[in-house]
C-alpha cells in the first residue's frame, strides 16, 4: 500500500480487532445478495489483514472483492468490535490505485482531478450527450450507448447544459450569510435541488453565496482509493470555502456533507498537514440542509399543503456518516397535509454507492429493487431523501419497477410548500 | 486430495457458479468465529442446492477420499467449521427455505440454511415461539444450530436446540438420504437417531431438513437489570431465585470487566463501577403471574443487598440492553487483540464457586478475564482477552483454561454447555468422558463414516 509504515501498522492493528463474529453478515446489502463469505466485511478484513502481513497478493480477485463494497457503513455502524471497516476497505483500495482501472471509471476519475476541464467537458457533454447516451422512452433519463465500463442498462439523469455554480443568486441583506456547497450532482445534474435550497434559504432571510471556486468533494476518489487526489480537491475546497466570510456552509448532498465535516480533516492530516486547522474550522461551520433548516429556519411559514403520503429514505452518508436521521423526518412531518409513513429498512443503502452502480449494475439493481419494494409498500406517493445520488438511483428503480412514486430531495418538498 | 478430475465431477454436480477455488475464497472459508487457532484453507468451497447433490458429493468423497466440512454461517466458537485436512467446505446456505409452519401441530419444517432470527420472526408473526436463541442468532443458521445443539439466553426455562428437534433429513456419509425421528410429539421408533445427530458437529451426516416443535408465544415478558456492588451477592441471588421456585427465561450475569467492555462498545448506560449485573427476564401467558414473579425477583435481589434494580419500562429499553449483551463477543476485543470465550457449565448451585474459581485464575495467571454467562443454567462464558503475539501470555492462557476445565468437571460440570467441542476443546475430552467414553464415540463414528470424510479431526 502506498502509505507510511505508521499508517500501515495502525490499519493492521485495526484489522486485528475483527473477532470474526460475523454480525456483518446480517447487515451487508451485498452479502444479502451474494451470500458469500469472501465479500462480507469479515472476509474482506481477513484478506486485508493477510495483505498487510504480506501473505496476500494484489490479485485480480482481491481487487474484485474490494470493489464489492458500497461504502454504506452499515457493517461499521453495527460492528460489536467497533472496527472501522469502510475506512479499511477504501484504504486497501489505495493499494490498487496505480493498477489499471476499467476505462470508464479511470477516465471519469482523471476528469474529476482537473476540475475546470471537467466543467467544460460536462457542459459540452450536455450538448453532445445524445451521441453517447440514448434517452429512455419516457424522457426521464438516458442509457449509455457505448460500452465504456458503465453498464448500458443504467438509467442516468441527463447532464445540465450549464453548471449550477455558474449562476449567482441575487444578494439580500439577510439575517445570516451562508455559502452553499453544491457538489457535482447538483452542479451538473440536479439544478432543481440547488434552486430549491437557495429558495428556502432566501425565504428564511438568509443571504446565500455560491463560491465559484468550489470543486468536487473528492468522495468518488477517496472511496476508490485515490486519497492523494481527494486531498488535492479537499485543499481547493477548503481554500474556496474559508476565503468567504460566512456564518455557515450548507450542503444538500450526504456524501459532500460527510467530506466537508469529517473526511477533509482526515485527508489533510495524511496529505496536507498544514491545512488541518483550516479543515477543522471549516467542518464546524458545515450543516446538512436539514440541520440548518431546523436550527435557523423553523419560523418559515409553510403555506401550500402537500396532501400526500410521504416516506423517507436515509442516505448512508447522512444517517451513519453524519448521524443525521431525525432532522429530515421532522421537516417532512412539519409540512401541512403530509401523511408521513416510515418505510421498512429506511436506513438501508439504495444500492447506488456512487460509481458502484455504474460498474455492478445487476448487483446494484437487486439491492435497489428491495429498496423500491420497501418504499412502495408504504403506499407513499413521494419518497423524500437528502442526497442527489440516492434520488437518482431511487428514481431509476422506480422507473424500472413501474412505480407511480417519485423521489425528491427534502429541499424540493420544502420549496414547493413556500408561497411563490 | 482434490485432483482436477474430482473437481470437475464436483462442478458437474453443483454447477460452475457454486464452486470456488480462488485462494481468496479459500482463505475466507478456512475460518469461522474461533480465534487463536491457525487456519488451513480447504481446496474448494462447494455450495450444493439440494439433498441429492449433497448425496452425490458424499458418494464421490467416499470414493476419492477427500474431507467434507459442512458449514452454515461459520459462527462456531470451537473451530467446528474450520477445515483441517484440505478437501471441501460444503456450505448448505442455498437450502434456505422455511418449508412449512404447521399451526395445528405446533411444528415447522425448515431447510438448514434458514437464519435463526428470521425463523423467529416468521413464527412469532403467527403467535408461535421457537425459544433457542444463540448469541449469534442474527446470522447463525438453523442447520448450524442443530449440528452444534446451540443454546442461548433462554436456556434456563426453555432448554436448548436439542429439546426442539423432532426429526431430521440427513445425508449419511455414504450418501444415503434418510429421514429420522418424525413430526409427532411422541416417537420411540428405533434408536433415537435424531438426538445422535443433534450436536454431532458435522461429523456424522449433513443435515438437509429439520422438523422442530414450537410453543405458543408467551404474551407477557418483563426484564430488569439488578446492579450489585459485590459479586458474591449477585451469585447468591441467582441460587436464591431458583430456590424460590421461580424460573426466569433468562438469568444472566456479567462481571465488572464485562460491564466495562459492553458499555464501551454499546453505550447503553451500564454502571461502570458495579461489580456485577444480573440481567433477568420473566415471561408467561398470564400478566398477573409475570408481574408477581417480577416483584418476587426484585424482593430477592433486595434481600441480597442489590444496589439498584432497573426495570425496563418499554420494549425499546429492553431491546437495547439485550442487544448490547448479544454483541458482547466483539466488544471484548477492545481490551486486547484476541478473545477466547469458553462455555464451561456447572450445576446451578455451583455458579458462585465457579465465578470465584475464574476470578482466582485471572489473578494467579495475571490475565484479563471478563465473565458473563447464562448463570441461571450454570453456563458460564469467561472471555479470556489476551495478546496472541505474546508467547508467555499465550502459555498462561493455556494453563488457565486447563485449570478452568478441571475445576468445572470436578464440580460435576462439563467442558461445553453450548459451543461444542470442535477443535479447541478436543484435547480435554478424555478428562470428562474417559477412555471408554471416547471409544464409544469412536465406534459410532467408525460405523457410520469408516473413511472419516466428514469433518475429520474434530470432537475426540
Structure summarized in a few sentences:
The complex is a heterodimer of chains A (420) and B (460). Chain A is α/β, with parallel strands linked by helices and 420 residues long.
Describe the structure.
The complex is a heterodimer of chains A (420) and B (460). Chain A has 420 residues and is α/β, with parallel strands linked by helices. Chain A has 21 helices and ten strands. Among the domains of chain A are: 5-94, Fumarate Reductase Iron-sulfur Protein, Chain B, domain 2 (Orthogonal Bundle), CATH 1.10.1060; 299-417, Rossmann fold (3-Layer(aba) Sandwich). Chain A has helices spanning 5-16, 29-34, 41-52, 60-67, 74-78, 85-94, 103-113, 115-132, 183-188, 191-203, 219-223, 227-242, 254-271, 276-285, 289-296, 316-319, 326-334, 356-359, 361-377, 388-400, 410-417, and strands at 133-135, 142-144, 176-181, 206-209, 248-251, 286-288, 309-312, 339-340, 382-385, 406-409. In chain A, helix 20 (388-400) links the parallel strand 9 and strand 10 (406-409). In chain A, helix 3 (41-52) crosses helix 6 (85-94), helix 13 packs antiparallel against helix 14 (276-285) and helix 15 crosses helix 17. The longest helix of chain A has 18 residues, at 115-132. Mean pLDDT of chain A is 86; it is low at 99-104, 127-134 and 144-150. Chain B has a seven-stranded antiparallel β-sheet, sandwiched between helices. In chain B, a hairpin with a 4-residue loop joins strand 17 (368-374) and strand 18 (379-386). The chains are: A alpha/beta (420), B alpha+beta (460). The A-B interface holds A 13, 16-23, 25-26, 35-38, 42-43, 46-47, 50, 56, 59, 61-62, 65, 79-82 and B 20, 22-25, 27-29, 31-35, 45, 73-75, 93-94, 115, 117, 136, 138-139, 265-266, 327-334, 337, 339.
Amino acid at each position: 500500500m502506498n502509505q507510511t509504515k505508521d499508517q500501515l501498522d495502525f490499519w493492521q492493528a485495526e484489522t486485528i480487532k475483527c473477532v470474526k463474529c460475523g454480525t456483518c453478515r446480517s447487515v451487508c446489502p451485498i452479502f444479502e445478495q451474494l451470500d458469500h463469505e469472501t465479500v462480507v466485511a469479515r472476509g474482506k478484513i481477513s484478506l486485508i489483514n493477510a495483505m498487510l502481513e504480506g501473505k496476500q497478493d494484489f490479485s485480480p480477485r482481491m481487487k474484485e472483492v474490494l470493489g464489492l463494497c458500497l461504502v454504506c457503513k452499515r457493517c461499521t455502524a453495527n460492528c460489536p468490535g467497533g472496527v472501522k471497516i469502510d475506512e479499511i476497505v477504501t484504504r486497501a483500495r489505495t493499494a490498487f490505485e496505480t493498477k489499471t482501472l476499467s476505462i470508464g471509471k479511470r477516465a471519469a476519475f482523471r476528469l474529476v482531478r482537473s476540475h475546470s476541464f471537467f466543467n467544460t467537458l460536462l457542459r459540452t457533454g450536455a450538448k453532445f450527450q445524445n451521441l453517447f447516451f440514448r434517452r429512455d422512452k419516457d424522457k426521464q433519463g438516458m442509457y449509455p450507448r457505448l460500452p465504456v465500463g458503465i453498464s448500458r442498462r443504467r438509467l442516468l439523469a441527463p447532464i445540465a447544459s450549464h453548471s449550477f455554480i455558474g449562476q449567482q443568486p441575487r444578494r439580500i441583506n439577510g439575517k445570516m450569510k451562508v455559502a452553499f456547497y453544491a457538489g457535482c450532482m447538483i452542479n451538473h445534474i440536479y439544478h432543481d435541488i440547488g434552486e430549491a435550497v437557495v429558495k428556502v434559504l432566501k425565504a428564511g432571510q438568509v443571504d446565500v453565496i455560491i463560491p465559484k471556486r468550489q470543486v468536487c468533494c473528492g468522495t468518488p476518489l477517496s472511496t476508490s482509493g485515490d486519497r492523494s487526489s481527494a486531498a488535492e480537491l479537499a485543499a481547493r475546497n477548503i481554500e474556496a470555502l474559508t476565503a468567504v466570510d460566512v456564518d455557515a456552509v450548507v450542503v444538500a448532498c450526504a456524501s459532500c456533507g460527510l467530506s466537508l465535516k469529517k473526511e477533509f480533516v482526515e485527508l489533510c492530516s495524511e496529505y496536507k498537514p498544514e491545512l488541518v486547522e483550516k479543515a477543522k474550522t471549516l467542518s464546524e461551520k458545515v450543516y446538512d440542509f436539514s440541520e440548518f433548516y431546523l436550527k435557523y429556519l423553523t419560523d418559515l411559514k409553510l403555506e401550500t399543503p402537500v396532501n400526500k403520503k410521504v416516506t423517507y429514505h436515509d442516505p448512508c452518508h447522512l444517517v451513519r456518516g453524519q448521524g443525521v436521521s431525525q432532522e429530515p423526518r421532522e421537516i417532512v412531518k412539519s409540512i401541512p397535509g403530509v401523511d408521513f409513513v416510515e418505510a421498512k429498512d429506511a436506513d438501508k443503502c439504495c444500492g447506488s454507492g456512487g460509481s458502484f452502480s455504474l460498474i455492478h449494475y445487476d448487483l446494484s439493481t437487486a439491492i435497489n429493487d428491495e429498496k423500491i419494494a420497501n418504499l412502495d409498500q408504504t403506499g407513499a406517493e413521494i419518497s423524500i431523501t437528502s442526497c442527489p445520488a440516492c434520488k437518482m438511483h431511487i428514481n431509476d428503480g422506480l422507473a424500472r419497477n413501474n412505480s407511480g412514486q417519485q423521489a425528491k430531495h427534502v429541499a424540493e418538498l420544502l420549496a414547493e410548500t413556500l408561497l411563490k | 486430495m482434490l485432483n482436477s478430475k474430482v473437481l470437475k465431477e464436483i462442478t458437474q454436480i453443483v454447477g460452475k457458479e457454486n464452486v470456488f477455488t480462488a485462494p481468496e475464497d479459500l482463505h475466507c472459508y478456512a475460518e469461522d468465529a474461533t480465534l487463536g487457532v491457525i487456519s488451513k484453507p480447504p481446496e474448494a468451497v462447494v455450495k450444493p442446492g439440494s439433498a441429492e447433490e449433497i448425496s452425490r458429493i458424499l458418494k464421490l468423497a467416499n470414493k476419492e477420499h477427500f474431507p467434507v466440512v459442512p458449514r452454515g454461517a461459520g459462527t462456531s466458537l470451537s473451530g467446528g467449521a474450520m477445515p483441517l485436512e484440505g478437501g471441501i467446505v460444503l456450505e448448505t446456505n442455498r437450502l434456505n427455505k422455511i418449508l412449512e409452519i404447521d399451526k395445528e401441530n405446533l411444528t415447522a419444517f425448515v431447510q438448514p440454511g434458514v437464519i435463526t432470527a428470521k425463523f423467529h420472526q416468521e413464527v412469532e408473526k403467527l403467535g408461535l415461539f421457537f425459544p433457542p436463541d444463540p448469541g449469534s442468532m442474527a446470522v447463525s443458521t438453523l442447520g448450524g444450530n442443530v449440528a452444534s445443539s446451540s443454546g442461548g439466553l433462554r436456556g434456563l426455562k426453555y432448554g436448548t436446540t436439542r429439546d426442539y428437534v423432532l426429526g431430521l433429513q440427513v445425508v449419511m456419509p455414504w450418501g444415503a438420504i434418510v429421514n429420522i425421528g418424525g413430526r409427532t410429539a411422541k416417537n420411540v421408533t428405533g434408536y433415537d437417531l435424531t438426538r445422535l445427530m443433534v450436536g454431532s458437529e458435522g461429523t456424522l451426516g449433513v443435515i438437509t431438513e429439520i422438523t422442530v416443535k414450537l410453543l405458543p408465544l408467551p404474551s407477557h415478558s418483563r426484564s430488569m437489570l439488578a446492579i450489585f456492588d459485590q459479586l458474591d451477592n449477585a451469585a447468591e441471588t441467582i441460587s436464591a431465585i431458583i430456590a424460590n421456585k421461580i424460573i426466569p427465561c433468562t438469568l444472566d450475569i456479567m462481571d465488572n470487566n464485562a460491564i466495562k467492555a459492553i458499555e464501551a462498545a454499546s453505550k447503553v448506560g451500564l454502571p461502570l463501577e458495579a461489580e456485577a449485573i444480573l440481567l433477568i427476564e420473566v415471561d408467561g401467558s398470564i400478566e398477573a403471574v409475570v408481574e408477581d414473579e417480577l416483584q418476587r425477583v426484585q424482593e430477592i435481589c433486595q434481600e441480597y443487598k442489590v444496589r439498584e434494580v432497573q426495570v425496563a419500562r418499554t420494549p425499546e429499553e429492553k431491546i437495547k440492553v439485550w442487544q448490547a449483551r448479544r454483541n458482547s463477543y466483539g466488544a471484548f476485543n477492545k481490551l486486547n487483540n484476541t478473545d477466547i470465550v469458553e462455555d464451561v457449565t456447572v450445576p446451578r448451585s455451583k455458579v458462585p464457586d465457579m465465578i470465584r474459581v475464574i476470578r482466582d485464575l485471572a489473578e494467579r495467571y495475571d490475565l484479563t478475564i471478563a465473565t458473563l454467562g447464562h448463570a441461571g443454567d450454570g453456563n458460564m462464558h469467561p472471555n479470556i482477552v489476551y495478546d496472541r503475539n505474546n508467547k508467555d501470555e499465550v502459555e498462561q492462557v493455556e494453563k488457565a483454561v486447563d485449570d478452568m476445565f478441571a475445576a468445572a468437571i470436578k464440580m460435576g460440570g462439563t467442558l461445553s454447555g453450548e459451543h461444542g467441542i470442535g477443535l479447541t476443546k478436543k484435547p480435554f475430552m478424555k478428562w470428562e468422558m474417559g477412555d471408554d467414553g471416547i471409544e464409544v464415540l469412536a465406534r459410532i463414528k467408525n460405523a457410520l463414516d469408516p473413511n472419516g470424510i466428514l469433518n475429520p479431526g474434530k470432537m475426540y
